[in-house]
C-alpha cells in the first residue's frame, strides 16, 4: 500500500487524486482548525466536530510533514486494529480469521485507506465491539467518541442485549451519553462553529456511486437528460427526478432503521457474536440506502466484518465474502476506471451495478441471517415430558439447539 502511495501519480492509480485529499484538503482544514474554528463556510466540510481532533493530530507529530504524519498515524491505527483483532482471536470461542480478514482485506482498496481518515473512525467501532466482553463502559465510551468523528460508530451499540451479563445496554448507553456530552462540550468550548457541518449535509444530492446514482446512470442510456457535476466534495447527478431519488433513498434509510428496531424488539436469543453481527448488519443497511457510497466506506465494512469473523459464533461469514468482493470492485471503479463511472459509460455503469449489487445482497443476507439466528426458539424455554424406555429409565428429549453450543 505504501508503494502504491509512492506511485500515486500513475494513470491507473488516479493521477494523484487519491493522495491529494490529504495534502490539499485535509491540510487546508488543519490550517483553519488550528486557529480555533471549524470551516463553517466550506461546502466540503460535512463531518461532526470530533473529526477536527483527528485532522489536527498529524500536526502534533514532530519532524514530519502533515502528509507524512497523517500516513504514519493511519499505519499506526491499522496496526492497533490488527493487534486488537489478533489478541481477541486467541481467546476461547474466538478465531484469528478476523485479524487475517482485516490484514488481507484492507489492501484490496489499494492505497486509498492511507489517504483517508476512515481507518481511524473504524478503529473506534472495532475497539468498542471488542471491549464489550470486558467492559461495557469502555464499549459505550469508544462508540460515542467514534460517533463524534463520523456518526456511524454509534450503530455498534444496537446489538447489545440480554445475551451478556448484567445490564450491558443501559450501562453502555449511559457511558456513551456521558462520554459524548463531555467530549462535545470540550469541542464546543474550544472551537467556533462546531455544528456547521449540518448545513452542508442537508444540501447533498445523489452521488454517482450510490445505489440511486447507479439507477440514474443506467437511465442516461435510456434517454434521461441528466448529467454529472462535482459538488459537495463528490460527483453527483443533477437533472429531472434526482430529488425524488434522493427522497426514496432517505425513505429506505428510515425503513432500514425501522427494520432494525423491529429486529431488536423481537430478538430473543443472543449469542456472543450477536452484537458484532448486528453492528455489521446495521452499517450495511445504512450504507446501501445512503445517497453517498464513497469507496472509503468499504473500510468500515471490512473492520466490522473482521470483528464478526473473530468469533466462532458469527452468522456473517458469507456476508464477509460478499464485502471482500465488493471492496475489490470498488478499487477497480476508483481510481482505475473512475472516468468511466463519472461519464456513465456502459463500463462504469456495469462496474457500479456489480459493486452495489454485491452490497445490496450482503445487506439483505446479513439482516436475514441475523434475524433467523436471534428469533424466538420455542424449545429453549421448556423441555418435553420424559418418555419411559424399556429399561424403565426416563428417556430425555434432545437438548434444544440453544443449549448444544452451536451458536445459532
Quick summary:
The protein has 408 residues and is mainly alpha-helical.
Protein described:
The protein is mainly alpha-helical and 408 residues long. The protein is built from 16 helices and five strands. β4 and β5 form a beta hairpin. α10 runs antiparallel to α16.
Q: Using DSSP, what is the number of strands?
A: 5
Order of helices and strands: HHHHHHHHHEHEEHHHHHHEE
Please indicate the percent range of residues in DSSP E strands (runs of 2 or more).
under 5%
Average pLDDT number? 88
> Largest sheet, if any?
3 strands, antiparallel
Write the layout of secondary structure elements.
Blueprint: H1 2-6, H2 17-33, H3 50-56, H4 66-89, H5 97-105, H6 118-131, H7 136-150, H8 168-190, H9 197-202, E1 206-207, H10 211-220, E2 227-231, E3 234-238, H11 242-266, H12 274-288, H13 297-309, H14 317-336, H15 338-342, H16 346-374, E4 387-388, E5 394-395
Antiparallel strand pairs: 1-3, 2-3, 4-5
Helix pairs in contact: 3-7, 4-5, 4-6, 5-13, 6-7, 6-13, 7-8, 10-16, 12-13, 12-16, 13-14, 14-16
